[in-house]
Design goal:
about 775 residues; alpha/beta; Barwin-like endoglucanases; Rossmann fold; Dimethylsulfoxide Reductase, domain 2; six-stranded mixed β-sheet; six-stranded mixed beta barrel; 30 helices; binds ligand MGD; binds molybdenum atom
Length: about 775
């Protein structure tokens, strides 16, 4: 095993040649078109590339593997509905490059681990199942049958099913997800952590508690009828570019837009629609009316300051600011909220938000006047210790205005992975829901486990303590996505067996258990042929609409299996006579999986029929209809303390964010075009006044050092970049900075790692 010790847990610290330019003023436009074609041309060639792009988000095509932003219900572009970063995601999957047995014969895991994440991702698509024997340094080919035998034997030899963990990343389809959770529960555990645990868990938890549903309430049409849209802690220009078209349309219909972000993100400034030819050559639309440069984690303070001003205005003009009827009829806890607001010190809230009093008063006026308000958010709010409180303060504000459950108004958590919301609907959750377990039992004649399983952070800790022996991942890159890379690496290495169902090579294939397997699967773009003919899968977008996705491209290799097939064959091998589920038949024809989903999950009535029509169907959403399925039947106001910032004199708060050229841990390129940062990812964005206080110059090298609960963590060699960021705040890229996110720094209630709030010191080198 000594050789294994030389496998690097993190990419080598090599600098790639930082160049700095100007921050871009306009998002999308021609540069986005050029960038899309560059990636498509390099990875798949223009001819095949255009063919595949024509199928994105079309009725007979596939769902873009990029983000979960919905497609317009009507008026889809005739050519295709995709964006620059969707095109990059597609190029990445449909690439002509291949990683097969010859590649693994040539390269040891030690050698591969010394390459960058960019290199690993760019190597190509995985083509054959591969096996890494105990102590070996090279993967070798293995047949599918032998791979399933290895996994099933290991699983069946465990002392308890809870010694296995089954992770899911949010790209897998509803069909794959349903079969997967069914297999895992028949095997006997609820150890089903997923990427959501690191992502929108705070949204689900926060919304669920107070509104009775953990999903957002708006649809795309609400954007077009809204008077005021607030975008908090989200960078749509990079991560949900198609959202900019919706904001543009809202703007044209008269909506005002407030953006709350420590950074002046380009996508929220001005936008040129890249698919609207006229628009590309004409002027850009100004999107944001008010940009509020909040301190990292200053959002609760801002929301409280706004609500104090609203309360003041309401007292002056009773009934003119709050929706009194809605509050009385539909909510509880109003008095307690008012009592808390009366106790708060307005000036202290202003100070803690980091925003000027003038800007807070100006924007409060909009909130006072407008009645149809949407608040959108993403990781800038969820990945904090008080992530759940952030979301519930948003709900407080919307409830005061009666802005939930009516046209043009509501909550909009903007989801990440394209089917992360659907996976949760399908039961990918470590918390078993009793009614769902009952239905699974009735439908499939078995006793479902009722104990809560491990979430991501608990799973890592359990692996580290050797309480978990097998780690199985349906997609994703657990090692690099999880917090505290060194800790997570040791946890994975403590397992007996780690298995990755993947499309592309990543670091989780190199930092592994004693034995490891790679099971290569079909991607979204590819044809899925089964016994009953070509299959389609279904997904749920960020607004609860379920629709089809049909791959049309030739698979990257003949040996690939679909995710539903992999899960079913694993279930057959593992459960043998213990399961009465017709696994094989279900994989021959996915209609049967959908029939089973219909039996077990409310809202999927006539699934097969409805999903084949038009753009599919919307799942029921009580909040959207102004009904609140909480234990009291009311929407709840809640009271939260102001978050404390106990920074030592030499400490900064660091957020770990995405560049324009990455999809989570997949690095498309080394540029962050909108932010004017090129050819380098090891950068730390910093306020110029903070730089001069420390005597730092542009491009100086520093180490970032974190102390948490007595443990010191160091991320070596980052280049300082002066940036428009509030004082005491820093920004670095994920996953390079994940080594600094402490494993035990998680959000209250949702357990989400606090990736947007990492305390660090800066050590010049
Ligand atoms: N191209 C591309 N698309 C993607 C992804 C990708 O990596 N690449 N990832 C997908 C996934 S899984 C997800 S979850 C989403 C992520 O989408 P985002 O949440 O937009 O992604 P982040 O880069 O994490 O950006 C967080 C934003 O929050 C801001 N922020 C940080 N801290 C705070 C704070 O305390 N308060 C406020 N108000 N703002 C703050 C940051 O400045 C940044 O603009 O995107 C999805 N889409
Ligand atoms: N510090 C820090 N850490 C974070 C975040 C952050 O903002 N800051 N964000 C968090 C968030 S929001 C998320 S969602 C997680 C993401 O965590 P993950 O979902 O685990 O990570 P990804 O990078 O999206 O996974 C990429 C890999 O998925 C595989 N893949 C791609 N498509 C498919 C497919 O169709 N099927 C299968 N089986 N595999 C496929 C490829 O092999 C690819 O290498 O990271 C989290 N980690
Ligand atoms: Mo995410």
């Amino acid at each position: 095993m000594a050789e294994r010790d030389t496998v690097l847990h993190t990419p080598p610290v090599t600098l790639t040649g930082l160049k700095l330019g100007k921050m871009k003023e306009v998002a999308a436009g021609m540069p986005a078109v050029t960038s899309s074609f560059k990636h498509i041309k390099e990875e798949i060639g223009l001819f095949k590339g255009l063919k595949v792009l024509q199928q994105v988000n079309q009725r007979k095509g596939f769902d873009c593997p990029g983000c979960a932003w919905p497609d317009p219900d009507d008026g889809r572009s005739l050519v295709a509905e995709y964006c620059e970063n969707g095109a990059k995601a597609i190029a990445e999957e449909a690439t002509n490059k291949r990683v097969g047995p010859a590649f693994f014969k040539k390269h040891s895991i030690q050698w591969l681990s010394k390459q960058s994440d960019y290199f690993l991702g760019k190597s190509g698509r995985l083509t054959e199942p591969m096996y890494l024997p105990a102590g070996a340094s090279h993967y070798e080919p293995i047949s599918w049958a032998s791979a399933f035998v290895k996994i099933s034997e290991k699983l069946n030899s465990l002392d308890s099913p809870d010694e296995a963990v089954f992770y899911t990343s949010g790209r897998c389809s509803n069909e794959a997800a349903f079969l997967y959770q069914l297999f895992v529960r028949q095997f006997g555990t609820n150890n089903l952590p997923d990427c959501s645990n690191m992502c929108h868990e705070s949204s689900g938890k926060g919304l669920g508690e107070v509104l009775g549903i953990g999903k957002g309430s708006v649809t795309l049409d609400d954007f077009y009828e809204s008077e005021l849209i607030i975008v908090m802690g989200q960078n749509p220009g990079t991560n949900h570019p198609r959202m900019l078209s919706a904001l543009q349309k809202a703007k044209r219909n008269g909506a005002k837009i407030i953006s709350v972000n420590p950074l002046p993100e380009t996508g929220l400034k001005k936008f040129k629609h890249p698919q609207d030819v006229q628009n590309v050559f004409m002027g850009a639309t100004e999107l944001t009316d008010h940009f509020l440069p909040v301190m990292i984690n200053g959002d609760v303070a801002l929301l409280k300051a706004w609500m104090i001003l609203l309360l003041e205005a309401e007292r002056k003009n009773p009934g003119m600011v709050f929706d009194r009827f809605f509050i009385k009829d539909k909510t509880s806890g109003f008095k307690e909220l008012v009592a808390d607001l009366d106790k708060q010190d307005f000036k202290a809230c202003v100070k803690a938000s980091g925003i000027s009093e003038k800007q807070i008063r100006e924007t409060a006026k909009l909130l006072i006047d407008k009645k149809r308000i949407i608040i959108c958010w993403a990781m800038g709010l969820t990945q904090h210790k008080n992530g759940v409180a952030n979301i519930q303060e948003i709900v407080n504000l919307l409830l005061l205005k009666g802005s939930i459950g009516k046209k043009g108004a509501g909550t909009c958590p903007v989801r990440g992975h394209s089917n992360v919301q659907g996976d949760r609907t399908m039961g990918i959750w470590e918390v078993p829901q009793p009614a769902f377990m009952d239905r699974l039992e009735k439908q499939f004649y078995f006793q479902a486990p009722r104990e809560t399983g491990y979430n991501v952070v608990e799973a890592i800790k359990a692996m580290k303590k050797q309480m978990v022996k097998v780690f199985f991942a349906l997609g994703g890159n657990f090692l690099s996505a999880a917090p505290d890379t060194a800790f997570t690496a040791e946890a994975l290495e403590a397992c007996d067996l780690t298995v990755q169902v993947s499309t592309k090579l990543n670091r989780s294939h190199l930092v592994v258990g004693k034995e490891a397997l790679i099971l290569p699967c079909l991607g979204r773009t590819e044809r899925d042929d089964q016994e009953a003919g070509q299959q389609f899968v279904t997904v749920e977008n960020s607004m609860g609409q379920v629709h089809q996705s049909t791959g049309q491209m030739e698979p990257a290799s003949e040996s690939l299996k679909s995710e539903p097939a992999i899960v079913a064959e694993l279930a057959i091998a593992t459960l043998a006579g213990r399961s009465s589920v017709p696994w094989l038949q279900m994989v021959e024809n996915y209609d049967l999986v959908r029939d089973a989903i219909e039996q077990c999950i409310p809202g999927f009535e006539n699934y097969n029929e409805r999903v084949r029509k038009d753009n599919g169907f919307y799942l029921p959403n009580c909040a959207r209809e102004g009904k609140f399925n909480t234990d009291t039947g009311k929407a709840k106001f809640t009271v939260h303390p102001m978050p404390e910032h106990d920074l030592a004199a030499d400490e900064y708060v660091m957020m770990t964010i995405r560049s324009h050229d990455q999809y989570n841990t997949t690095i498309y390129g080394l540029d962050d075009r909108y932010r004017g940062i090129y050819q380098e990812r090891r950068v730390v964005m910093m306020n110029e006044a903070d730089m001069s206080e420390l005597g730092l110059k542009t491009k100086d090298k520093v180490n970032l050092v974190g102390e948490h609960n007595g443990v010191t963590r160091v991320a070596e060699c980052f280049l300082v970049v002066p940036y428009a960021i509030p004082r005491s705040c820093l920004a670095t890229y994920f996953p390079e900075a994940n080594v600094l996110v402490p494993i035990d720094s998680v959000a209250e209630k949702s357990h989400t790692p606090t990736s947007k709030y990492v305390k660090v010191r800066i050590e010049p080198i």
